[in-house]
Amino acid sequence: MGSTGFSNCDIGQRQRLGITEPISLSGPTEYDVAKTRELEKYLQDAGLYENQDEAICREEVLGRLDQIVKIWVKTICRAKGFNEQLVKEANAMIFTFGSYRLGVHGPGADIDVLCVGPRHATRKEDFFGELHKMLSEMPEVTELHPVPDAHVPVMGFKFNGVSLDLLYAQLSLWVIPEDLDLSQEAILQYTDEQTVRSLNGCRVTDQILHLVPNIQNFRTTLRCVKLWAKCRGVYSNVAGFLGGINWALLVGRICQLYPNALPNMLVSRFFRVYTQWRWPNPVMLCTIKEGSLGLQVWDPRRNPKDKYHLMPIITPAYPCMNSSYNVSLSTLRVMTEEFQRGDEICEVLFFTLKEKM
Ligand SMILES: Nc1ncnc2c1ncn2[C@@H]1O[C@H](COP(=O)(O)OP(=O)(O)OP(=O)(O)O)[C@@H](O)[C@H]1O
Ligand SMILES: [Mg+2]
């Protein structure tokens, strides 16, 4: 686990992050430093951090998986009759995203992984066919479940006991360079919808990390908010509440609004801001860009279905989408009550401590 960003430089000196000016540029007091240490200890005691051995094991698994997709792409090139030079150049690689990439995963959590392959490595025959076959023959791989017809097609499995969700992006490139930059918009060109959706996870995660002023403070605050949401029963995308990505974006916005605050303060501001938030005003980390590829972006003035979103939380990478379309009137009411409850608890704590001082 990394340490808290106490050395936070003054954001006033740097480029502004977010679509508005910050609410406050105040930095931490000694009290905040002490309280944030206590908060970190609490999170650690709650078992939220994986140990060194587990972390190494995950890295080894990811290293192995990268080797496997590289072997896979060469195997299919040979089978398609490519000459040895093309086989030699053929490449595929993996990228992590989701909570693992954000650095807020707990012990035993799944790793979200994207496999990126060239134009001749197809999703149906090569990814869900040959790669699936290769994985199914490996003794390290268990519980292999391909879901090719999902909105975002995925292959779930365990590798040496580590749970992975593997997506596939079939790019229009003939050769995948090792230094491939997924953030460039051109990467989406001439790809299918499933590839755009699959790439989105990585592009969004990377953007979040770019758009928060202090990553370590963001991580600690997000871990705390995720723990709270799970305890209060409001952590679930499928049940109409919010999932990992939504909580990450909500916390990211608070970090932008209070760029110099430490996690103890950010948690209390989180409850304050979202208690007062006037939904359906969207929460966004950056402006929604139209892009040059003509893909549909979230726009309630133009897209009729976007008008009905009750709690829009917009993803920051092109094509920007609402990540919380499942929220209903009743789940929004429950979450609003929970934000209020959190806010009241923070307020009581603050005044009790002030009286003692
Ligand atoms: N509703 C959604 N809208 C946009 N992207 C999504 C959505 N659900 C998932 N994703 C993408 O897939 C990634 C993985 O999703 P997942 O639900 O595993 O969240 P997570 O951030 O990894 O949290 P958890 O700790 O619960 O696994 C997210 O980080 C996000 O990039
Ligand atoms: Mg995940």
TrEMBL record:
It is found in: Nucleus. Its cofactor is Mn(2+); Mg(2+). One of its GO terms (cellular component) is nucleus. Keywords: ATP-binding, Magnesium, Metal-binding, mRNA processing, Nucleotide-binding, Nucleotidyltransferase, Nucleus, Transferase. GO terms for biological process: mRNA processing. It comes from the Eukaryota. Mg(2+) 2 binds at residues 110, 112, 165. It is an enzyme of class 2 (transferase). Its EC number is 2.7.7.19. Residues 18-212 form the Poly(A) polymerase nucleotidyltransferase domain. The keyword Nucleotide-binding applies. Mg(2+) 1 binds at residues 110, 112. The keyword Transcription does not apply. InterPro entries: NT_sf, PolA_pol_cen_dom, PolA_pol_NTPase, PolyA_polymerase. Residues 217-348 form the Poly(A) polymerase central domain. Binds 2 magnesium ions. Also active with manganese. Belongs to the poly(A) polymerase family. This is polynucleotide adenylyltransferase. The lineage of its organism: Eukaryota, Viridiplantae, Streptophyta, Embryophyta, Tracheophyta. The gene is 25480803.
